[in-house]
Design a protein that fits this description.
The complex is a heterodimer of chains A (518) and B (375). Chain A is of the alpha/beta class and 518 residues long. Chain A folds into 3 domains: 9-232, 3-Layer(aba) Sandwich (Rossmann fold), CATH 3.40.50.300; 257-339 and 427-494, P-loop containing nucleotide triphosphate hydrolases (Rossmann fold), CATH 3.40.50.300; 348-425, no CATH class. In chain A, strands 6-9-10-3-11-12 form a 6-stranded mixed sheet, with helices on both faces. In chain A, strands 18-21-22-15-23-24 form a 6-stranded mixed sheet, with helices on both faces. Chain B has a single domain, classed as ABC transporter involved in vitamin B12 uptake, BtuC (Orthogonal Bundle). In chain B, helix 4 packs antiparallel against helix 5. The chains are: A alpha/beta (518), B mainly alpha (375). Chain A binds chain B through residues 310, 312, 331-337, 342, 344, 349-356, 360, 363-368, 373, 376-378, 380, 392-393, 395, 397-399, 403-404, 406-409, 412, and chain B through 220-227, 229-230, 233-234, 236-244, 352, 355-356, 358-363, 369, 372-374.
């Protein structure tokens, strides 16, 4: 593995730093992309890939650092400026108008005009020319709503080329594609490369990266780990680079679990909107007094799994048992009342009423039970007392319990959410990324709360992308990949190589990774 | 803290009203009439007891309309169909009241129940379409307004006309005295002087107040009300907390429609005793404005209803005296709504900013916080 340095970088980012409240998304990141290469940027979710690309594309501005394009220093304050400098981006979520044709979508915002009207004829000509020269097969007059996903992506690529981009950024372009479409995309990318375009390719699927990229830059926790030549690295080595060489110390606490199974998933399957299996026949038990950590690159079914347990998403197969009792057909409320606590992945979306006072937020999810309710009535004084207890025992820093949840910092909001779930005395806690986006102090407090609850016999299903959290808290670790549980590991003995390998699928591919060279 | 809250809460409507007066004055100046004269004229006519009685009557109806709309608004449901719901409900309730003869209290109760049931079930159609077919309630309720008005005319002409009537006034049979609501003239006259010109203060005012109290209690004191509010504030969080999204939508629509059904009753029970061509329409749309100005709050909606009621009652004087067109009052009402929406947004931004600052300060003094927490 040698660090690659090219003499003529077309894009050079040096010391890019970007801070958001409570987190540093990019911490002195360096990226050098040579002209005419396919350069992959890899890293786990939250490693800072997307932020870096948004900075390069002018969607966000860096707090520190320098950007050079073709050797001259630049500073973009909008994507329009990046496009003028020859940089275009294809977003993961397509930005196309369904009710317009391919042609109209491509020229939208950059319409060629003749005497004040859109010059359709010349646009038509240009588009066919572009399609022919890059082998991008598209019919200009097709309605976008009739196109397949892969075709829509091609429209996005042509859109960028039409605006004269020489450098194309593709944000996880394969995430939405089926295997044949991936091959088609790769053919297109090689064609673009052969005509001198430079491609920056964001991904975390290692087999794909190795198949297409010339150079690979690895990011981890907002920092550049290294830049390597793709011919000099294996999937296993990449996985290790992504995950990190040192794992945090595992929990040293004695096991508190007994043989009593609190939550049991038996062949649980969940279908996504397209009818594909987001969760595929998962078998998993969570015992009393046990924290089961679910590791995995995001988007591999963890979110769907949790929503299925809560009853927010219908299951398509299998069974869910709480304390031995099947929850089939139970609405969300019944599950909550039966003692399932929930710390959602996105507290703003699923966990809080931002404009309501804290005491009304404290009862959310427990509004049918004492001390928050008395029969069909709310118990306002009981709720206020309970909230005061939560605020003091979980150290929620707030001027008072009448303050709106919106006013609090992320860490304090999260402490409130954790506090209200713990205070209700659940039998089973489902927690997703419980410390995401909060400061270190609040993180430590949340971890301590989870440990205490576990000691008292709480069963916890913990989904997280934070390895320190998983290894530091979990009694058992399972890895999810493409909706299945692909490995069960002991946090005390696992290695980064093992974990990274399972998370990215490299462990399975290690045996048959000859397909990585094109 | 609390004082500042109250001051902020009052600032928005007061500013909105001041801006509206200023803007409408400009309009009056532009057409070449004296705004001062017009406002003074309205003030002197508007402060007479008879106009105030009118104001109370109009406000009663506007308040019910405002509450009906506010129930939907509180969970981000836009029941634009209050208009159709109340007209259809009033007509059917009047027809039902005229068709039977019952003991006094029972008779009035029957009319009210019919009105609420009709309004409720008609609004329920929109709720059902939303949860089962995904039809946005704004679209369906607007369409259903046309259906309701057409249905009202059709049912009235086909089956419910008063056979004995010879005036071609297209009316339902008159409701017998047992189905009428007593007025409050006695109370008012006891406090001031005799009300002239045959004006009556409708007793249904008390029902409107009761509806307001129940509305407030429901939202702030009951679990179902909390579920409804939570859905309005954040439907995703509400769902995760165990609120069933579609049944809450249907329930809110039914409730909104039930209150909407009452809007026409003050007039039917207190004055007309029948549904005819003179029946007041347009209150459902006015209710949207009243709910917006009143911030969907029981007291706020009341103040807004009184304001609009007074403007409606005092406006006719402009036709009689001076050369100010009375339409200026409609302009004024429109501007009040617009500036109120803007003013409330400004105030809520200020409130959020100050709250965020207070919360940030609360996190700073670590010493104080550790002192305050039990060790």
């Amino acid at each position: 593995m040698t660090v690659k340095s090219s003499p003529t970088p077309v894009v050079e980012l040096t010391g890019i730093t970007k801070r958001f409240p409570g987190v540093v998304a990019n911490d002195r990141v360096d990226l050098r992309v040579a002209e005419g290469e396919i350069h992959a940027v890899v890293g786990e979710n939250g490693a800072g890939k997307s932020t870096l690309m948004k900075i390069l594309y002018g969607m966000q501005s860096a707090d520190e650092g320098r950007m050079q394009v073709n050797g001259s220093e630049v500073r973009f304050s909008s994507p329009a400026e990046a496009i003028d400098a020859g940089i275009g981006m294809v977003h993961q979520h397509f930005m196309l108008a369904d009710n317009l044709t391919v042609l109209e979508n491509v020229v939208l915002g950059a319409e060629p005009t003749r005497r004040g009207t859109i010059d359709r004829r010349s646009a038509h000509r240009d588009l066919e020319e572009l399609g022919r020269s890059y082998g991008l097969d598209l019919h200009p007059d097709d309605l976008v709503e009739t196109l397949e996903v892969g075709e829509r992506q091609r429209v996005e690529i042509i859109k960028v080329l039409y605006r004269g981009a020489r450098v194309l950024i593709l944000d996880e372009p394969t995430a939405v594609l089926v295997p044949q479409e991936v091959e088609e995309l790769f053919r297109n990318l090689r064609e673009l490369k052969s005509q001198g375009h430079t491609i920056i390719f964001i991904d975390h699927k290692l087999a794909e990266v190795l198949a297409i990229a010339d150079t690979i830059t690895v990011l981890r926790q907002g920092r550049t780990v290294t830049t390597v030549d793709s011919s000099e690295v294996t999937a296993q080595e990449l996985a290790e680079l992504m995950v990190g060489s040192e794992l945090p110390a595992p929990s040293t606490e004695p096991r508190a679990s007994d043989e009593h199974v609190m939550l049991s998933m038996q062949g649980l399957s969940v279908a996504d909107a397209d009818g594909r299996s987001a969760v595929d026949a998962v078998n998993l038990d969570v015992h009393r007094g046990e924290i089961v950590g679910v590791a995995g690159v995001e988007g591999n079914g963890q979110g769907e799994l949790i929503e299925a347990v809560l009853g927010l998403r219908p299951t398509s197969g299998g069974d869910l048992l709480l304390d031995g009792e099947s929850m089939a057909g139970w609405p969300v409320r019944r599950r909550r009342e039966a003692g399932i606590g929930y710390v959602p992945e996105d507290r703003h979306r699923r966990g809080l009423l931002p404009d309501a006072p804290l005491w009304e937020n404290a009862m959310l999810g427990h509004q049918t039970q004492p001390p928050y309710a008395r029969g069909p009535w709310l118990n306002r004084s009981g709720a206020r007392e309970a909230t005061t207890r939560i605020v003091s025992s979980f150290d929620v820093r707030t001027p008072g319990i009448d303050t709106s949840a919106r006013a609090l910092s992320g860490g304090n909001q999260q402490k409130l959410v954790i506090g209200r779930e713990m205070q209700a005395g659940p039998r089973m806690l489902v927690a997703a990324h419980p410390t995401r986006g909060i400061d270190v102090g609040a993180q430590a407090a949340v971890w301590e709360n989870l440990r205490t609850a576990r000691r008292d016999g709480l069963a916890v299903l913990l989904v997280s992308a934070d390895l320190e959290e998983l290894i530091g808290l979990a009694d058992r670790l399972v890895v999810m990949l493409r909706g299945r549980i692909v490995a069960e590991l002991d946090p005390a003995t696992t290695t980064p190589r093992l974990l990274g390998g399972h998370m990215t699928g490299a462990a399975g591919e290690a045996t048959d990774d000859e397909g990585r060279t094109p | 803290m609390t004082l500042r809250r109250i001051a902020l809460a009052l600032a928005a409507p007061v500013c909105a009203f001041a801006i509206s007066i200023a803007l409408s004055s400009l309009v009056l100046l532009a057409v070449g009439t004296s705004p001062l004269e017009a406002w003074l004229e309205m003030l002197s006519y508007g402060s007479r007891l008879e106009t105030l009685v009118e104001t109370g009557n109009r406000a009663t109806q506007l308040y019910l309309a405002g509450i009906a709309v506010a129930i939907g608004f509180r969970m981000n449901l836009f029941n634009i169909g209050v208009e159709g719901q109340y007209v259809l409900a009033a007509m059917l309730a009047a027809a039902a009241g005229g068709a039977v003869d019952l003991p006094p209290i029972l008779h009035v109760t029957l009319i009210m129940v019919v009105a609420m049931a009709v309004g409720s079930s008609f609004a329920g159609v929109a709720g059902y379409l939303k949860v089962s077919r995904g039809v946005h309630e704004v679209i369906s309720t607007i369409m259903l307004n046309a259906v309701a008005l057409g249905l009202t005319g059709f049912l009235l002409r086909s089956w419910l006309l008063d056979e004995a009537d010879t005036t071609l006034n297209m009316m339902t049979p008159e409701i017998p005295p047992s189905g009428r609501f007593p007025n409050l003239n006695g109370v008012v006259e006891g406090l001031s002087r005799e009300i002239t010109r045959g004006r009556e203060l409708w007793g249904f005012l008390l029902v409107a107040i009761l509806v307001g109290v129940l509305f407030h209690l429901f939202l702030s004191r009951t679990r179902a009300g909390y579920d409804l509010r939570a859905t309005g504030l954040n439907p995703f969080a509400a769902e995760a907390s165990g609120v069933h999204p579609s049944s809450t939508v249907v329930r809110a629509m039914l409730l909104s429609g039930a209150v909407a059904g009452l809007i026409g009753l003050p007039e039917i029970l207190g004055d007309a005793h029948k549904y005819d061509l003179n029946f007041t329409q347009g209150l459902g749309f006015a209710g949207i404005a009243v709910a917006l100005i009143g911030r969907n709050h029981a007291v706020g909606v009341g103040i807004a209803a009184l304001l609009f009621g007074w403007l409606d009652s005092a406006a006719p004087i402009l036709d009689v005296v001076g050369d100010t067109p009375r339409e200026i009052v409609s302009i004024l009402q429109g501007v009040v709504v617009l500036s109120a929406v803007v003013a409330f947004e400004v105030v809520s931004r200020i409130r959020r900013a100050t709250e965020a600052r207070d919360a940030a300060e609360a996190t700073l003094p670590t010493v104080a916080a550790t002192d305050g927490s039990p060790s």
